[in-house]
Every structure is written in structure tokens, then in C-alpha cells.
Amino acid sequence: MKDKGIRINICMGTGGIAAGGAQVMEAFKKELRKAGIKASVGKRCTMHKVGCRGLCAKDVLVDVVKDGNKFTYQFIQADMVPRIVQQHLIENNPVSEWLVGEDYHNFHNKQVKVVLSDCGNIDPEDIEAYIKVKGYEALKTVLKKLTPEKTIEIIKKSGLRGRGGAGFPTGTKWEICRGVEAEQKYIICNADEGDPGAFMDRSVIEGNPHAVIEGMTIGAYAIGADIGYVYIRAEYPLAVERLKLALKQARKKKLLGKNILGTKFSFDIKIKLGAGAFVCGEETALIASIEGERGMPRAKPPFPVHSGLWGKPTVINNVETLANVPYIIRNGDKWFSSYGTEKSKGTKVFALTGKVKNSGLIEVPMGITLKEIIYDIGGGIENDKALKAVQTGGPSGGCIPAGMVDIKVDYESLAQVGSIVGSGGMIVLDEDDCMVNVAKYFLQFTQAESCGKCVPCRIGTKRLLEILDRITKGNGKETDIELLEKLGNDVKSASLCGLGQTAPNPVLSTIKYFRHEYEAHLKGKCPAGVCKDLLTYYILEEFCKGCGACMRACPAGAITGERKKPHKIDPEICIKCGACFEVCKFKAVGKE
Amino acid sequence: MSVTIDDFSSHYKEIRKMKHTGLVLEHAEEYLEKIYRKYCHEKGSIIPILQEFENEFGYIPEEAIRWIAERLEIPESRFFGVATFYAQFHLKPRGKRIITACSGTACHVKGSERLINGIRRELNLEEGEDTTEDMEFTFEKVNCVGACSIAPVVIIDKKVYGKATTDKIIKEIKSLKTGQ
Ligand SMILES: Cc1cc2nc3c(=O)[nH]c(=O)nc-3n(C[C@H](O)[C@H](O)[C@H](O)COP(=O)(O)O)c2cc1C
Ligand code: FES
């Protein structure tokens, strides 16, 4: 870009706003006004609200583009803005110590961005910004030059598979639905994103809502639907707001509604807000929820492509799946299938979080190794601790141990080791994490979210959780590990829907790779020092300075001691909340 | 089963006052009638209606369900069935301030459990309860608010606190308590 003038891009995704993005924006406006910069550069000095740009750990991120030269600042707060305006914009001397470093560039270098290619670069609240980067051109091509059959063929050839978890080939799904005779069909975009540690779909909608709308419209044309629904979590207010705005803008431009772009094709999209139930991500439960009922799944077949919403043929696709579609049409199926492995084509967005240095949203080609993701993109483990495992696929997935980080990340390879790609959660665990606790965490989640319709899932997950609970409390029985394995496999094979069929995965995979940790718990020890009931807190006299911080922090009054003399914890009174451990500056509180 | 609208009106005023909106609606029926008209022709309207109530009252008053169920000729039980299924719906009034702790996976591995216990202790919440007796605070857990890189995350009255420590959050709650 060689345009003259000044452009300032401020990260305004949920992460950016949480870190103070709005205040930074205000500060820029104020300082620019004060310096009279707006007057001298006129309208070109625009302030863009960009969506998520991935590296949320360094928020607030700010791009300053002056005469075509882009500089990116990290960790910016409102009070730092005056200096940037003065030094960079007025004196032409970027504030070097606040600029992003090498790790920021590494974070980006190994990524390949398709779905996220425009996220963070365009203003998601402005349809013109999307159109400027060739947005809606794919829709034009499809409506004016391609038949539905030809469109489906391109998607089939590209090898695109569902990004919502199961990895079903998208083109095939569309083809089946196209083949069903019916006067009314629907397309649904699944934006329920239930994995409790992931936010890919939300970021895509926040950062580039028009790509999702365009993909959905192309899908509707391909299968012959005239009404679409986006089922989105009510907990995502910013995404909902931006989607609503985008729909309005698209209708105004005749890209949605009656006779789109002057053709015979009509299609419109409605938003349905989810009401907070994980199981509603499952397609038949989601349909029940749109129909206004309790979101309970039903047995398949019939599959939704034959009998879905209100009994009509319905295609359900994930947000990321649909957002890929316009890029595939625009760049061709060969371009898309040049990324990835033989059976898993294209790229995948992951929410890389946990104990990794650079956490945030990443998009990588399928088939990249786990090691590259963690060490090259993620920058390694926080505080130079040792990697223990990587959890992928959320509550339906499993844990991959540190010894297997050379594994390729694609549908088949992850399934082979007992995990899944899933919707894209990727949580890095280090030596301080207890694998039994992690398994219990996910089971607590699935047990609470089980809808209760089928017995294996309703009662099975409850029993599994009870066993895990007693293990982490030091009351485990010798036969418990075998019992978990047996019961886990039973729940998997007998449950009605994907929730129960996958719920035991976190338990089974941790037993497979970390059996010794389970065994240690049976002997009354939590090796990582996480399980509260198996811990005792004590004070290391040689380090204690007698500052009294722990005494003040202790909510139970279990700590006594004179000033400047080593303190003591009374194990009888201690409630093991860990407050003393957290506040001690001298590392004088130990736990075992 | 029916409720007299008078009973409901007085209850309704109470609710309105509790929400500190400063607005007391004289006629609850008017509001309900409006909702009825908005949804009477729509298929699958149970969830949207409950969402309207939740937004209006901050929770779902049973009386409102009874009224609308009768008017729409849909059994009450279907409304209650849906209302108890989804986490977003509350059948009990909630506190003036809402404290939300993220218990998503990233926050969990960064110690949200300890944080959550600390907050519950500070608010003196009994097992199974989530609102303080004086109706000042409601505490709830949510799954991933999407700010995992600043985990653990706590939200107090829509303000997001990243890299939260028990210490910091309790200080914040204490200052809210004394500031009342
Ligand atoms: C318990 C459960 C939860 C699910 N949650 C989601 C979800 O949050 N988002 C999603 O896109 N798919 C989810 N799915 C998968 C959907 O059922 C469905 O396969 C997917 O939306 C299809 O879209 P795709 O082919 O584009 O992946 C879930 C499945 C199960 C069994
Ligand atoms: S897990 Fe808490 S913000 Fe994502």
C-alpha cells in the first residue's frame, strides 16, 4: 500500500477491548485532535476498528501506518498514546521500545491465513472494506456464472471438510441436500461454539462477518435454500451486534434478500440466539432449539439433510467452514487443496491457549506438527517450564503427551492417538498441571451439560465423575482405573449423541498416557500439587522473612507468627485455599 | 390455573424497582400484551419470549410465564421445561451486581478454581446459592469469554479483569461493598 497519510488500526476484538482498546482509541482521537493532525491529513487519517488479530496476549496492539510504512506497537495503554503521536507522527521517529519484537513476527511467519486473512486488516463494521478486498466477488461469480451443481463440484474438489468437529466433507453434504426434493430447504450456520476454551468462530464473526454471510449465501444457492439461520451464543454480544449490522448492510446492497444482484435467486438470513447449552452445538439439538424447544438431540438417521428444521431438508455448517467458501470460489479448488495433507485439505484455525508464551488465535495449514505450533508460533512454554501435554478438541478431545509433539495436526493423525481436531481448542499444559484434575474438569463440564435424554450419558458421566472425584480426594479404590476404562468405553458406545459418545475421551486418553499420575493419586499424592485434598501447605522457615503478608491473606486464620520471625501454618485450621502461596513474595510457602 | 393481573402488577412493580431502573410500569398487562402480539404468529417462540422476559426483569417471573402460556394456549410446562433447560434463564431474582468468573479451560489451568472459591467465600455464599441475601451480588460462572490470553478472567458489572488474582478481585468486591 503506497497511500499517503496516516492510518491507525486498533485491536478491538473482545481481547482488545478487555485490555483497554476503547480507551486507547479515545486517547488517539484526543491527541490527534490536539496536535491538529486531522486537519493536515484530512479524511485519510481514519481510525479503524479492526477485529481480532490473533496475538491477544500482547493487547492492545496498534498499527500505525504512515506514508505506507506500517509499525506495530504492543501492550499499548491510553497513557502511552501522547508519546506515540508526538514522537512517531510529528517527529517521524517511531517509539522503538514499544514496537513488537521478533516473537511477534515468528508468531505470524509459520501461519497461513485463509479464513483469517482479512480479519484484523479490515473494518468489520464496514461492508465497503470487505468489498475492497474482493469481498462478494465469489457470490457474483457463483450466481452469474456457475450452476448449483458446478458450485458443489468446486467445493467437493477443494477437499473442504467440516470445521465444526466431525470433519464431514462439505461438498458431499451439500450434494446430498441438493438431491432431496422439497419446496423448502434451510441452511444453518452453527455459531454455538460450546468448547469452553475456544473462541475461533466468535473471532471470525467479529473480524469478518461478511465472509460468513457470503459463504452461507453461496451454500444456500448450491442446495436450493431461501432461508438461513445463524445460531449464535447469546454470550457473544459483540459478534451478534456486528453480524446484525453486516446483514443490514448486505441487504441494502442487494447482496441478501429478494433477487440478489438482480438474479432470480432470493435468500435471507435470520439470527437465533442460543441460550447457553453445550449440547445445542449438536445438530439435531440445535434444530430443536431453533424450533423453540429444549435442545435435546434425537437419533440419526434421518439426518438433517433429509429431515431437519421443521422437518425440511437442512444443511448445518460451522462458521469456519462457511467462511472458507468464498476464498475457495475466488482462488480455485486447486489453490485450496495445495495446503494440507492428503485427506485433510486447507488450513485450520486454533485457539492456542494455556501455558504457552504467545497465546491467541492462529491459522495453520493442516499437517503442521504440534511442535511447530507450540515452539515456533507459540514461542515455547511460559516461564520456561516443561511441556507436559496438549489438549485438543475440548471436552470431546484428548490429551497428547509431550513425547508425541512430532505428530501432524490433521483429522486422521489426531484420531489415531485418541484425540480429535475438534472445533479448534488447543490448550498447552505444563509440569504444574495435574492430568487427573484436567480429566475431572472436562467431565464436570460434560456431566453438567448432558441433556439427560439417554441413560448411558446421563448416569454414566455422573458415575465417571464420582470416581474421578474420589480419586482426586485421596479416597480412590485400587480397581478404580480399570473401572473408569470399562465404564468410559461403555458410555462411548451406548450414548445417543456425540456428547456422550465423546465425553469419556479426556479420561481415557489421560489414563492411556498418564496412568502413573492416577496411580500416584491412589497412593495419596498429587505429583503436580494441584488436588487440594492431597496437599499440605507449610512455611519454609529459612525463606520466611516474617512480613505477615500470608497471615493477612489467610481467610481461615490458620497462620500465626511474630513480625520478622518465621510464621507457622496450623494444618488443622488450614482450608488449603492457596492464598498464602499466592501472596508470598519470598517463595517461603511450600506445598506437597 | 390463572393469576389475577392485579397480583402480577404489584409484583411487577417490585421487580422493576429491584432492577433500579427507576421506572415503574403501571400496567404489566400492557407489556405482556405487547409481547404476546409480537410472537403470537411465530413458530418456535418459547425461547425468544423467555429471552424478552429475562432482559426485561433480569429473571423470569413465574407469573409472567403463567400469563403468556394461558394467552398463547401453550401448556405452562413447556415454558418451564425450556426455562430450566438453558443456563441463560433464571427463575429466581438476581442481585444488583453481577460477578462472573470464567471457568473455561484456559482459565481453569491458570487457577480459576481457587479464584472462584475465594470469591464465594468473600460473598458468604452457601453451597448451591449464587445470590447474596441482601440481593446485592450474584455470582456466576461462564465458559470461555474469549479472553484466554489474559486468563484467569473475572467480569464485574461488565468490566473485564484479566490476569485476576484472588487478592485483586476481593479488594474490588470490598470496595463495592463499602461504596454502597
Ligand atoms: C456435543 C456436541 C457439540 C457440538 N458443538 C458444536 C459447535 O459448538 N460448533 C459447531 O460448529 N459444531 C458443533 N458440533 C458439531 C455439529 O453437530 C455439526 O457436526 C457441525 O456443526 C457440522 O458443521 P460442519 O460440517 O461444517 O463441521 C457439536 C457436536 C456435538 C456432538
Ligand atoms: S477460558 Fe477463560 S477466557 Fe477463555
Any overview of this molecule?
The complex is a heterodimer of chains A (592) and B (180). With 592 residues, chain A is of the alpha/beta class. Chain A has five domains: 98 residues, Glutaredoxin (3-Layer(aba) Sandwich); 204 residues, NADH-ubiquinone oxidoreductase 51kDa subunit (Rossmann fold); 84 residues, Ubiquitin-like (UB roll), CATH 3.10.20; 88 residues, NADH-ubiquinone oxidoreductase 51kDa subunit, iron-sulphur binding domain (de novo design (two linked rop proteins)); 57 residues, Alpha-Beta Plaits, CATH 3.30.70.20. In chain A, 40% of the residues lie in helices and 15% in strands. Chain A has 24 helices and 17 strands. In chain A, strand 15 and strand 16 form a beta hairpin. In chain A, helix 7 packs across helix 14 and helix 8 packs antiparallel against helix 9. Chain A starts with 5 loop residues before the first strand and ends with a strand. About 1% of the residues of chain A have low confidence. By secondary structure, chain B is of the alpha+beta class. Chain B folds into two domains: 81 residues, Arc Repressor Mutant, subunit A, CATH 1.10.10; 83 residues, 3-Layer(aba) Sandwich (Glutaredoxin), CATH 3.40.30.10. Chain B contains eight helices and four strands; from the N terminus they run αααααβααβββα. In chain B, strand 3 and strand 4 form a beta hairpin. Chain B is elongated, with a radius of gyration of 19 Å. The N terminus of chain B is likely disordered. At the A-B interface, helix 1, strand 9, strand 13, helix 18 and helix 24 of A face helix 3, helix 5, helix 6 and helix 7 of B. Bound molecules: flavin mononucleotide and FE2/S2 (inorganic) cluster.
